[in-house]
Design goal:
Strand order of the largest sheet: 1-4-5-3-2-6-7-8
Number of helices: 12
Strand content: 25-35%
Number of strands: 18
Helix content: 25-40%
Distance between the termini: 36 Å
Radius of gyration: 24 Å
Structural class: alpha/beta
Largest sheet: 8 strands, mixed
Order of helices and strands: EHEHEHEEHEEHEHHEHEEEEEHHEEEHEH
């Protein structure tokens, strides 16, 4: 059932929802939460499709907030609320209300959303893109117990992690973290099986992927060993290697579908590490509405802790100076230029000529045993997806 309301109010929308429920033969709401999606016209379709799919596991009232302030002075002066209500099969297992706010009303979206929230039910706000700098201080974010962002949609995904750390409030989370749950679960399970000493780690993945950085920060934080970040062509995270005295423990996923777990003295095993779509990620986030302390610790770990290697060129963390191994020449080293072009926001290339003193790598912290690391964090599948 689809109902269109033009130049309406929140009370009229509530009345229309109640009438639609009666006509469908169900007077009880039967929904467990309210999911508020803050998006624009361009991203609304994909976001609503993902939310409707997730609602089959978590029946919810979905409120899509689309702000249309207007381009001309006349359009900005016109204040109007248009609503599109979807009930039944068109709205998954709940109700969907698309709110289009025109003019000055776009700056006061919380006053429209507040009367439409389900009573005595949790509220989750999701920004598929263009998330605020501090979600908890956003007028809509202040209404929610959980706030979901996605750093991968930002112009500088890795730089967005620093912003998420600076403005973190209990209840915040990011889909970049959700994508690595499978990786964290597999690595923790592998370390549970062997009592070995981890001396270092390598995380391989594509550039501009915040999930790669978060996985490296998590390993550095939990294992207390130096972690090297290697840029590859992807897709997503391609491999993780844990260095031990007996050999490397390797979790390799070159195609984004199936991974291979290799451990010294044991046969290789195939594991499921498929890159999952947004609907599955959102469904995972809705299973848990309490603060994620492990995410908070990982995102607050400085990205400079990771040592990066791009096509044989190394530097000590994002923004560090690249030191080429080739001798000084009249022309710039091709690898240095390629690294600077591939990741301009994270690599500053220093052309040969005056040799700059190489940065000393931070001394490796005392290695800890895998058994202690696994005890410190049993990544009880937080029902999140690794990507």
């Amino acid at each position: 059932m689809k109902i269109d309301l033009t130049d309406t109010t929140s009370s009229k929308i509530n009345a229309a929802l109640m009438n639609a429920r009666r006509e469908s033969g169900s007077t009880a709401a039967g929904m467990v939460l309210t999911l508020v999606i803050v998006t624009d016209e361009g991203s609304a379709y994909d976001a609503l499709k993902a939310a409707n799919d997730a609602s089959r596991e978590h029946p919810s009232r979905i409120l899509a907030v689309i702000k249309r302030a207007g381009r001309s002075p006349r359009a900005r002066a016109e204040t109007r609320l248009d609503a599109e209500i979807l009930v039944g099969t068109d709205a998954g297992s709940g109700e969907t209300v698309i709110l289009r706010m025109h003019g000055e009303l776009a700056a006061h979206a919380q006053s429209v959303v507040l009367p439409l929230l389900l009573p005595d039910a949790p509220v989750v706000v999701w920004w598929p893109d263009n998330a605020p700098l501090n979600p908890a201080q956003d007028p809509l974010g202040a209404l929610a117990q959980r706030r979901i962002t996605d750093a991968v949609t930002a112009e500088s995904p890795v730089g967005q992690l620093a912003q998420r750390a600076a403005g973190y409030t209990p209840g915040d989370t990011d889909l970049a973290w959700t994508r690595i749950t499978g990786w964290r679960s597999m690595l923790a399970a592998a370390l549970d099986q062997r009592d070995v000493t981890i001396t270092g780690a390598v995380v391989e993945g594509e550039s501009y992927n915040p999930s790669v950085e978060l996985l490296g920060l998590w390993l550095n934080n939990r294992l207390r060993v130096p972690v090297e970040r290697v840029v590859t062509g992807g897709p997503g995270i391609t491999a993780v290697r844990l260095h031990t005295e007996d050999g490397d423990i390797t979790l390799d996923r070159p195609d984004g579908l199936l991974g291979t777990l290799c451990m010294p003295g044991a046969p290789d095993r195939m594991v499921a590490l498929k890159r999952r779509d947004t609907a599955e990620l959102i469904a995972e986030e809705l299973r848990r509405l309490d603060p994620d302390d492990i995410y908070a610790t990982a995102v607050r770990t400085p990205v400079d802790r990771l040592r990066e290697r791009i096509a044989g060129v190394e530097h000590a963390g994002p923004g560090g100076t690249v030191e080429a191994a080739a001798p000084a020449a009249a022309e710039p080293d091709a690898k240095v230029v390629e690294a600077a072009v591939a990741a301009p926001a994270r690599v500053s290339a220093k052309l040969p000529g005056k040799a700059a003193p190489a940065k000393k790598a931070a001394p490796a912290k005392k290695a800890v045993t895998a058994k202690k690391a696994a005890t410190a964090e049993k990544t009880a599948p937080r029902k999140r997806s690794g990507q």
